[in-house]
Amino acid sequence: MSPKPIHVLNGPNLNLLGVREPEVYGRDTLADIEAACRARASAHGRDLVFRQSNHEGELIDWLHEARENAALVLFNPGAYTHTSVALRDAVAAIAIPVIEIHLSNPAAREAFRHVSHVAPVAKGVIAGFGAHSYILAIDAAAVLLTAAERPGS
Ligand code: CA2
Hints:
Blueprint: E1 6-10, H1 22-25, H2 30-43, E2 48-52, H3 56-69, E3 72-76, H4 85-93, E4 98-102, E5 124-127, H5 132-149
Parallel strand pairs: 1-2, 1-3, 3-4, 4-5
Helix pairs in contact: 2-5, 3-4
The protein binds ligand CA2.
């Protein structure tokens, strides 16, 4: 049986990347980031599912689906990071690891971005490296999954 894929889930407005606010989020589009993630995951021998939604309920459905179908989730909840108890509950409810990722470093931005409802139930958080946050997260995911697959772990 082939290993389950890594799911990369992206929240609201991330479809606008590369179009506005390049000084905050960089010049890469979400399609550029997806291509870079696919290449990195493939270098680790992992398949990838990459999705974006502007709807909280759809993100919750995808987290539930990942419970069955994914080895691990990389999750950029966008602004829902700071507002959504429902997304936090969905992350807490699934038994697989979830790594929270951000392009910017929310801790260095406005006070309302300093709270993450997701971080306390995530395996870890990678933030502040632009599109490279996603690549670092793929590498972290590969390390975690390889360790979990080792006999006796
Ligand atoms: O830094 C991140 O990855 C964020 O999750 C991005 C969210 C923001 O609300 C979080 O605090 C941090 C915003 C995504 C919106 O992306 C845009 C891209 C281009 C133009 C406008 C918004």
